[in-house]
UniProtKB/TrEMBL annotation:
Name the record gives this protein: Fatty acyl-CoA reductase
Fatty acyl-CoA reductase C-terminal domain ranges (all copies): 337-429
Primary localisation category: membrane
Superkingdom of origin organism: Eukaryota
Gene Ontology MF terms in the entry: alcohol-forming long-chain fatty acyl-CoA reductase activity; alcohol-forming very long-chain fatty acyl-CoA reductase activity
Membrane-protein topology: Multi-pass membrane protein
Ranges where the Thioester reductase (TE) domain occurs: 1-265
GO CC entries: membrane; peroxisome
CDD domains tied to this protein: FAR-N_SDR_e, FAR_C
Length: 476
């Protein structure tokens, strides 16, 4: 969401300087990383319009790290920020649900506290915008646009985590989390509580986006830079690797195209800062009140698109499989359709001198399913009255430029664009490989038919042999 927000602000607003807090990563300096950011395809249209040098000149790089005390910012850079910045967006977070608790607290909770400390020093601050999540108060089945009590005192949690050793924190993580299913939801709820607490001192706003998914249209259709949410499932199923999933088929997730999310953040900022509507300071960026796609619907759309329109390269098995209502059904299907093929293919790879990979892939998939199952088998709904109100304040041109409604969204077309995006931006599969992928899909369809006949034929043969030996052998 951070990249998409930067692109939107630079393309559609008259914003001045943008100060970007960037850490050193993989030996690259913050300035080098900024150049890498602008090399992302999402900035292609913007670079054509304004030129790369102009964009780089508009950005001020602040070297730092939200996990370090004082944000790792030099005294000179801190003064630069506090003297000039009027709006802060805090998007930095680890979004791994299975992240170690200490790392999640340091980034998602303590990092937020340190950002708030910086905001309190800013002389021209008009707004501190915190990107939370609509899935951090999971005990509430209907989430309203209001504060909720955190699962613990965030200040005490920060102090305890700072003091305790890593192995001690790991050993008591489940006790600390209590009923909270993962470290992500727990630490984001704590971070949000810190922002709400700071509202008495600074102008602050909480954004609660739902499951952020690829762009609808802006600036390009289907763009994403990660495989979180349904995109990962579509890729896994499209490659023929994921054949079974345990969840409530009729349930639904709440999906937010990232371009809708950043447009909503821009509109909410305009309302809070420009219109001085301070009463509205918690916004739900959600979609399920208008568009609902069941888990089964996502699976069927994915199969249809990868079968007939946008197949992926290097498919291991013909895309198929079903959603299972009961865990035992999924475990049985996973044994036959995930683990047995994985072991056989890895043995073949080893014999041929290649590195086995499929068992490792399925261990990661199984671990991901452990996290996903909680969300896929529970249901939440969200009130978004503030966004509905903002739609009434926008004129026709603004509604097009900053789209925050579902008018014109065609679900089949959108998911097709998502798979195109996965091909181009995640898997780096170029469009000219599509004809070969379609030919490969036809071959895999034939292989799937043959292997299915052989598989069930073998089961029937041995079942018949067993019945014969047990029942008829003594008679004849």
């Amino acid at each position: 969401m951070g990249k998409a927000l930067i692109e939107k602000l630079m393309r559609c607003t008259e914003i001045g300087k943008i100060y970007l807090l960037i850490r050193i990563k993989k030996g690259k300096s913050p300035k080098q990383r900024l150049e890498d950011i602008f090399a992302n395809p999402i900035f292609g249209k913007l670079i054509e319009l304004r030129g790369l040098d102009t964009l780089l000149a508009q950005c001020v790089v602040i070297g730092g790290d939200v996990t370090e005390l004082g944000l790792g910012i030099s005294a000179e850079d801190r003064k630069l920020v506090t003297d000039n910045v009027s709006i802060i967006y805090h998007c930095a977070a680890t979004i791994r649900f299975d992240e170690l608790l200490k790392k999640a607290v340091m980034l998602n909770t303590r990092g937020t506290k340190l950002m708030l400390d910086l905001a309190k020093e800013c002389k021209k601050l008009d707004m501190f915008g915190y990107v939370s999540t609509s899935y951090c108060h999971l005990n509430e089945k209907l989430l309203l646009e209001k504060p909720y009590p955190p699962p613990a005192d965030p200040h005490k949690v920060i102090k305890a985590i700072e003091w305790l050793e890593d192995d001690v924190v790991d050993g008591i993580t489940s006790k600390i989390l209590g009923s909270c299913p993962n470290t992500y939801a727990y630490t984001k709820a704590l971070g949000e509580a810190l922002v709400i607490e700071a509202m008495k001192d600074i102008p602050a706003v909480v954004f609660r986006p739902s499951i952020v998914v690829p762009t609808w249209r802006e600036p390009i259709s289907g763009w994403t830079d990660n495989i979180n949410g349904p995109v990962g499932l579509l890729i896994g199923a499209g490659k023929g690797v994921i054949r079974s999933m345990y969840c409530d088929a009729s349930g639904y997730g709440d999906y937010l195209p990232v371009d809708f999310g950043v447009s909503a953040i821009c509109v909410c900022t305009w309302n809070y800062v420009g219109q001085k509507d301070y009463a509205r300071n918690i916004y739900h960026l959600v979609s399920s009140a208008e568009i609902r796609v069941s888990w089964e619907g996502v699976a069927e759309l994915g199969k249809s698109i990868t079968h007939n329109k946008v197949p992926l390269n290097g498919v291991a098995w013909y895309p198929g499989g079903t959603i299972k209502k009961y865990r035992w059904q999924h475990n049985l299907a996973a044994f036959f359709y995930h683990w047995i093929p994985a072991v056989l293919i890895d043995c073949l790879l080893y014999v041929l001198g290649y590195k086995p990979i499929l068992c490792r892939v399925h261990r990661r998939i199984a671990k991901g399913f452990e996290v996903l199952e909680y969300y896929a088998n529970n249901q939440w709904d969200f009130d978004n009255a503030a966004i509905l109100y903002l739609r009434t304040k926008m004129n026709a041109e603004e509604k097009v430029k900053f789209k925050i409604d579902a008018a014109g969204v065609v679900i089949n077309e959108y998911f097709e664009n998502c798979i195109w995006g996965a091909r181009r931006f995640i898997l780096n599969e170029t469009d000219d490989t599509l004809p070969a992928a379609k030919r490969h899909m036809k071959v895999m369809w034939f292989v799937n038919i043959v292997t299915t006949i052989l598989f069930y034929g073998a089961i029937l043969y041995y079942l018949g042999l067993w019945i014969y030996n047990r029942v008829f052998a003594s008679v004849f």
